[in-house]
User: Fold LacI family transcriptional regulator from Allosediminivita pacifica.
Amino acid sequence: MRAPTLTDVARHAGVSYATADRVVNARGGVAEKSAERVRRAIAELGYVRNVAAANLSQGRTYRFAAIVPKGQDTIFSKMQGLLEREREKLALDRVELLIEQVEAFDPRQLADCLARLDRDGIDAVSLVGTNHPAVIEAMTLLRARGATIVTLVSDMPEEARDAYVGIDNAVAGRTVARLIGMAHGGQPGRVLPIVGAMTARDHAERLAGLREVLTETFPDIRLLHQIEGRDRPELVAARVGAALEAEKGITAIYSLGAGNPGLIEILRERSAPAPRPVVVVHELLEHSRAALEEGLIDVVIDQRPEDEIQRALEIMRRGADRLPPDPVAPLGAAIYVKENLPPEMGAKTGDD
Amino acid sequence: MRAPTLTDVARHAGVSYATADRVVNARGGVAEKSAERVRRAIAELGYVRNVAAANLSQGRTYRFAAIVPKGQDTIFSKMQGLLEREREKLALDRVELLIEQVEAFDPRQLADCLARLDRDGIDAVSLVGTNHPAVIEAMTLLRARGATIVTLVSDMPEEARDAYVGIDNAVAGRTVARLIGMAHGGQPGRVLPIVGAMTARDHAERLAGLREVLTETFPDIRLLHQIEGRDRPELVAARVGAALEAEKGITAIYSLGAGNPGLIEILRERSAPAPRPVVVVHELLEHSRAALEEGLIDVVIDQRPEDEIQRALEIMRRGADRLPPDPVAPLGAAIYVKENLPPEMGAKTGDD
DNA sequence: TTGTACGCGTTATCAT
DNA sequence: ATGATAACGCGTACAA
Assistant:
């Protein structure tokens, strides 16, 4: 059986094609009586709009934008690289992808960028969630025009966005607690947490998760007071170094923010006095991958930016095609040890 | 700038639309001179075939098939459920998905099923890789017709299929070794591996990976001789019970095949004599999830069938649309502990 | 060997 | 408030 077309619907409802179209696309100017008949016909025949035909007739190429904070060797720089690689694939499907850079932690710049994209008539946007009135207002305007907005990595109030793509940070913290607990094999210990800043929602959530499970399940492992590294390597190095001097029995370190090159530097210096503490950090990047391979750290928790981007783009596409968003399971973080590192997808293989 | 159409190409090459079409779709019957001009025009204009328009004109709905082995509370039953859920989503894009059941480990039935699908003119097929001449022959016939074939979970020779979607089993074994090693916290131990059968390629690979890393990195942890459970719960229960009696100092158990309900039963009976061994099993299913929540086991390695299916379908779609396959990173296995279990996506939420 | 013209289902424009 | 119809880009049947 052929899928019913809008022509079928119109015939079934006893109206012209144009009238049926007006109902489907909510263009208005239709007598309630006719509209009702069309709606019934749609239900009875099980009509579904043919996206391919719709896009064809409009001759339209969608325009998506991804707003990425600046910063090198961070989760964001990695995302940017991945996005650039998605471009050509999207081009085949007539989707143009704009990648916009903004200064990290600068809500004004972010809001301005959104406003600019609004003027350009963009169809969908993804951004790293940032709770600030100006940002929320710019997003509201965009969405009023029908654009789809996806928050990435860090979420915002539900009303402000169409979807959130990212990991559950409390779960990440709890998981790390379990792994650290297992690595103690029943022995007591002390865990040193390193945060960027406790004002960052994701950092606070991770730490809370860690604390919960340590308290409930591993009461012999004590949680020390956190170090604030402001996500800056030099600061992290200095403060971790000091902490390791001051506090002697540290059996585990959990770095739940950025600035890990600083931590790794300290660990390399002190690699001699075995057994070194169990070390867990976030995000699989150049430096953390190297440290894992070198045996300086034990576990990396990763957001899997590849999948995040995949999903974000899928949501944007569905929004642009005016399809209902489909409920997907929340994204789980990956757990990497030395043995299950993914192959580096950096440069193309060249030969083969 | 509007994307160039085949009409543009034809004009640019100074030939008719039909001639350009013949070149693009390799229909033959074109003078080499004309063909060359068309190819040049394509390159110069950067023409890309508009898939949406092509599908529209053919009024065609793609037909995909997924062949799934029978078996309850296994990775396959889970996949079947997931596939059924994909059906409606696919229907929106005019793709019909057939789900075919076959007896597990029955190459003849599998080959027959493939032949039947071939007669039906199917566009793409996914199946669990099974190395058998009859299966390979049926696949060859299908592919000769232009159908795309994806092997799932277990691979086959490269020439026989278009793509493999599944985890790297050696990596899985190595990863488990690391986790078990970490859980020993420097202490010595003995690991009991449970396989289905050493003839199963994936089982053998996992065990080999385990052995490698234990030998290299954790020489104090001894690998005991494996138990063969034939993937059957009763057999696993009996043999594991016997092994635990005979061998006293077991500190870890790695079940790398199926039949885990049997293992879990034994563990529940013996939960008293703490500390129990570290237990790692494969596949997140009802029983393994429950055991993890109950604290009877410690780690579950999962293939993430959701993602496997997603990818397999994406590859099939690209094949059907005659797009070049895009190189994707191999799928990584998920590591689950009690704290990072994904929400159960079983029944629909009912309310809200 | 080459060229023409129609239909696919939708959108958008121009009548009535 | 309603209806008719020309695109959109591709595949294909048919004509030359």
Remarks:
- Confidence is low (pLDDT under 50) at residues 347-352 of chain B.
